[in-house]
User: What shape does this take?
Amino acid sequence: MDLYEKLAKEYAKKIFGFAYSKTKNFHDAEDLSQDIILALYDKGEELAEIENMDAYIWRVSNYTWSNFLRKNKPMWNTLENAEAYVFARDSQNVEEDYIKKDLCERMRREVMYLSKMRRDITVMYYYENKSGAEIAEILGIPAATVRWHMGETKKLLKERIDMTDTIYTPKKLQIFFSGNANDMSLAGLRNDLLTQNICIVCGKKALTVEEMAAEMGMNAAFIENKLDALLYMNYLEKVGANKYKTTFFIKDAAFVAARKRFEMENLPPLAYAIYKAIKNHLEEIKAIGFLGADISEDALMWTLTTRVAHDYSILPEFCVPFNRTTPMRGDGSRHWIKASYSMGDIKEELLKESKELWDHVRLAGGKAGAHSSANGVCFQQFDPPVLCTRNITSSKDIVNLKRIYTIIKDGCEISEHDREIIAIMVCEGYVRMRGGRPEMSLPFMSKEEYARFCDITKVILSEVIAEVGIDIGKRYTEYIKKYIPEYLSDVERDYQAAEFYEPNAFAYVLYKEGLLHDISEDEKKSVCSIAWEN
Assistant: This one.
């Protein structure tokens, strides 16, 4: 590592702190930090001759800050009245000029955090010199309402300007849903960082647009653009005249740790019972003769374990009764939101407790029970993270898989188009070739074969229940209630307390104990997946 790289690494946080203290804006601070680091880079070999590096970097930072002000003058200077705000002209001490104008700049920034109505009123009154009557006429509201907004805005701005700024770090959520959804993006909730962070800051208490903007250091206009979609989908609700509250629970590190501790302590006896019962009936299952019954026993055991764990977890006796009226969304769909902080955001807290807990969190979850159908075929998929992380199988893949199933079952001649389909499915791991003919790499059952399979799994479940019972769902509900916040609605709290579904955790327990074994990379592409005709 050369001297420049060492300095950049050692001083990166200090340089960003300096940049933020000057710009009071996260994005501008990033730009200024980069300029400072580049300025250091340009010094090259001179750096090795510096005796007091702290003082030198301070001087470079201030000089770069002065240049930054001049370069960005058009963007920073938005007031019409130049006499009210003369910014960084040709002064020999730009820093001194900036200090004199700091209060005005803070005011300008806080105005950006106001809601649209208050922002428009403030700009028209102070920056465009319009009277209250003129503003009322332009906005189509009573003059008294304009006066009320001005009074509230003055109080809010005074409070905000007196506060000490802190840097808001955006967080990434993991978002899944239970139910049906017309829009897989969930109105941006699954992939839009601003949408997610609006829901985060409104999670514990209702906030106004101004409060959200101040909390996130974000222009209120950007936040307002997201609110309609969130309200329409009932992911946010309006509280009173102008506040917003998130309607779903975001699982934090404390909740995740509590849930996973329960799994670690309570799942092993149940997982062993499932494994033993499957083993006792394995040859009977293979004897059904479905396509894919001849895959390796290790791969088949992974698939059967996750499927039987799923069947056990959805038995009526397992589930705790609660108000199961799934929330209605604005687009007509009905689904619960399953939200949690990303692994990166909770890792440190979980590692403080134990590495074993962290390993269980990251390796015992994943997508489970994903169900899709097309062309008369149902497809169910589980993705234990200890083995694989895959996309949900598409309808097109299911249609292609059905065609190959027909080729195998009926001994059809393989056309050129079929060869293309087979090549795709071999690449994706669903199919393998032997002697120039395709074979299934996962269980694919006819309607009759699937009925026989379900009959056997019912027997397996009865043996499991006879050995270890079926009260784990009730015990979990009683245990987890104390970790679910009181500020949630009763319906949401009941759902979170009853929502215990982790088929992949059963498989991880068995893998950790050496009962389920590693499989090949090709097998991982299709493991824990089952298809059947319906």
Notes: The chain has a mean pLDDT of 85. The radius of gyration is 30 Å. DSSP finds 22 helices and eleven strands in the chain.
